[in-house]
Amino acid sequence: MILYPNCKINLGLRILNKRPDNYHNLETVCVPIGWCDILEIIPHNDIYFTAQGLPIQGDWEENLCVKALKLLQNDYPDKVKGAKIHLYKRIPMGAGLGGGSADAAYTLMAINQLYNLNLSKIKLEKYAQLLGSDTALFLYNSPQFCYERGEKTQCLSLSIPYPILVVYPDIHSDTKFAYQNLVYQNHEGKSLFNDVTQIPILQWRYYIHNDFEHSVGTLYPQILMLKEKMYHYGAIYASMSGSGSAVYGIFQDAYSLKKLVHELPDTFLYHVQKNV
After folding, report:
1. Residue 1's CB: how many other CB atoms inside 10 A?
2. In degrees rounded to 5, what are phi and psi of residue 161?
3. Are residues 53 and 88 in the same domain?
4. Which domain holds residue 172?
5. Does residue 174 have an active-site annotation?
6. Do 204 and 132 share a structural domain?
7. Are residues 130 and 19 in the same domain?
8. Is residue 106 located within the same domain as residue 224?
9. Selected catalytic residue, list 8, 89, 227, 229
10. On the chain, which terminus has fewer CB atoms closer than 10 Å, C or N?
11. Same domain, 27 and 148
């Protein structure tokens, strides 16, 4: 089975407070983007993991695809013996695009189908939440309002009829650093769900912000410079995605978008999404 796990961008990201379990309550809107990895999974009696494409750090047994497989193997040992997993990595890591979480979610869905486990989306959600706060949203692959730790999701009706340029500026952003250096904003009385669904896109730049931009941008000013460059080239809205480092811009004028693409350094990776 060959699958194409896609990533997401965040429309706004508000960190509300720190929880007793040391996680944070947050609000964000995640929108699927067609920047994809390529994942091949073949049933097997043992577990094998190989990878190509962009380099993947860490031991293969710690890869989220393998962890997803083992979760189902542990609960259904009579059915799930193992699998050969080959990942061709195209979505950059440390970019705030959720590529690893997408790979994990697609692995869960593939194993469920290959071994006829007949698990519902709600049951798969339980496994996805064990793998990461944003993993479950890739089971639905539609615009989602995410809240609490980010693991709770609510579908929303959202259309962005303009092309979106997503750029990875060759910087690996560390989520732990982003949280440790977070400057809390006052979001009392505000609802990101309402802002994204009720405020026109042309006005988003004045109301919808990513709280991580301050902490990550202080360490990597190139990220904020890239955001400003998108506005300079005519973006109607631009933001860092997640805890960075990818930055995206929404453009009414496709010609301006193409001009910016030609200005990007060769070390930058990018993806153009026609619309959402």
Report:
1. 14
2. -85, 25
3. yes
4. 164-273
5. no
6. no
7. yes
8. no
9. 8
10. N
11. yes
Q: Indicate which residue of 134, 211, 227, 229 is catalytic.
A: 134
Q: Where residue 229 sits, what CATH number does that domain have?
A: 3.30.70.890
pLDDT digits (tens, 9 = 90+) for 191-214: 999 999 999 999 999 999 999 999
How far, in Å, are 44, 102, 108, 128, 227 from residue 115 at the CA level?
11, 20, 11, 18, 45
Total domains in the fold of the chain: 2
Cβ density class 219-253: b for 16+ within 10 Å, e for less: bbeebbebbebbeebebbbbbbbbbbbbbbbbbee
What does the pLDDT profile of the chain (276 residues) look like in tens digits? 999 999 999 999 999 999 999 889 999 999 999 999 999 999 999 999 999 999 998 899 999 999 999 999 999 999 999 999 999 999 999 999 999 999 999 999 999 999 999 999 999 999 999 999 899 999 999 999 999 999 888 999 999 999 999 999 999 998 888 998 888 899 988 999 999 999 999 999 999 999 999 999 999 999 999 999 999 999 999 999 999 999 999 999 999 999 999 999 999 999 999 988
Asked if 140 and 170 sit in the same domain, the reply is no
- Catalytic: 190? no
* Domain match, 267 and 242 both: yes
